[in-house]
Amino acid sequence: MATIQDSRASRLLVWAFLSPTFVLILFVTAIPIGIAIFTSLHATDYAQIEEFVGLAHYRDILLSPDGWLRIGNSIRYVVLSLLLVIPLGIISATLLNRSILMRAALRTAAIIPWILSQTVAALLWRWMLNANFGPVVFVLSELTGRRIDFFNTEVMARFTVTLANVWYSFPVALLLTLAALQTIPQELYEAGRVDGASDTRMFGMITIPLIMPTVLTTTVLLSMEYFNMVTLIYVMTSGGPFNATETMSVAAFKQGIDYWNIDRGSAYSVLIFLLNILFSLVYVRVLKRRDR
Q1: If you average pLDDT over every residue of the chain, what do you get?
Q2: CA 22 vs CA 10, 15, 25, 119, 270: distances in Å
Q3: For the residues of 122-139, what is the DSSP string, one character each?
Q4: Which of 25, 196, 198, 217 is 20 to 30 A away from residue 125, measured at CA?
């Protein structure tokens, strides 16, 4: 009887400790998602929810060229950013994990972009790449004899926004990868050297497999951040030119905040949520395959 009571007391204690987390998740995540889904299924007049329209807003988004343009912009932005950030983070972490001169100072300097807010980072890049007085444009014009406008064409604007995002967010990949590298036992590398393995072979056969779970976790975390990112893009280009850099998150912000179309903004938000779930499922599938 005492054992049963102790077991019940232990379970109650566990739930007592977990309940604040569940309450936080409920109010911060579950309820806002439910409100967004409910709003996306209704028409709105400013903040007033009116008649039920079903999937009309989703149909309008998915059947319009602008909707697919924004979806394509989001996927392109996420994929290109990841293709640059993940290798850059791995290479930087590998270098900073070695005994090199001023390693502590370099590690500190590497995380400075992450410390800045997205607004400050966006304004910094806009100033550096300004076509009239930007220092980067001035140097390039002196070297090439041509003045480049990084925000005037669709291709250059997409490239610029992606590059700014890579600079801003790669410290996340750097720090997580560096932490994973420091958990690898040095005995494995010593055994590899005894067997005559080169540094390149040990990197491919020891380092990469052991840090891959962290890399996959970093990938899914950053992909969610990129899908939800608004401030960096909005401050740099506001989605222009010609909606070339308007991702779904920027469209959701503009529809809901700038134009007060809360119903359509909520629909974009729900689609972003579904894309995040899709990326997470792919991540879980890859991780399970690795475990097998």
Answers
A1: 89
A2: 18, 10, 5, 32, 22
A3: HHHHHHHT-TTT-HHHHH
A4: 217
Give the DSSP letter of residue 270. H
Beta pairing partners, 52: 42
pLDDT, tens digit, 9 for 90 and up, residues 204-215:
888 888 998 899
Task: Collapse the DSSP code of 49 into the 3-class scheme (helix H, G, I; strand E, B; otherwise coil) and give the result.
Answer: strand
- What tokens appear for 65 in the block? 């060229």
CA atoms within a 13 Å half-sphere pointing along the CA-CB vector of 177: 27
> What does the DSSP 8-state code read for residue 98?
S
Provide the 8-state DSSP code for 45.
Answer: E
32 contact partners, CB below 8 Å, separation of at least 6: none
Q: Distance between CA 117 and CA 168 in Å, rounded?
A: 9
φ and ψ at 42, to 5 degrees? -130, 160
Residue 50 DSSP SS3: strand
Phi, psi of 54 (to 5 degrees): 65, -130
Contact present, 206 and 184 (Cβ < 8 Å): yes
For 83-112, write each residue's pLDDT tens digit: 999 999 999 999 898 888 888 888 888 888
What superfamily does domain 65-291 belong to in CATH? MetI-like (1.10.3720.10)
Map out the domains of the chain as residue ranges. Answer: 65-291
Confidence of residue 17 (pLDDT cuts 50, 70, 90): confident
Both tokens of 182, joined, read 């420091």
Q: What is this structure's pTM?
A: 0.89
Which residues lie below 8 Å from residue 78, measured CB to CB, with a gap of 6+? 223, 226, 227, 279
Report phi then psi at 52, rounded to 5: -75, 130
> CB of 65 within 8 A of CB of 77?
no
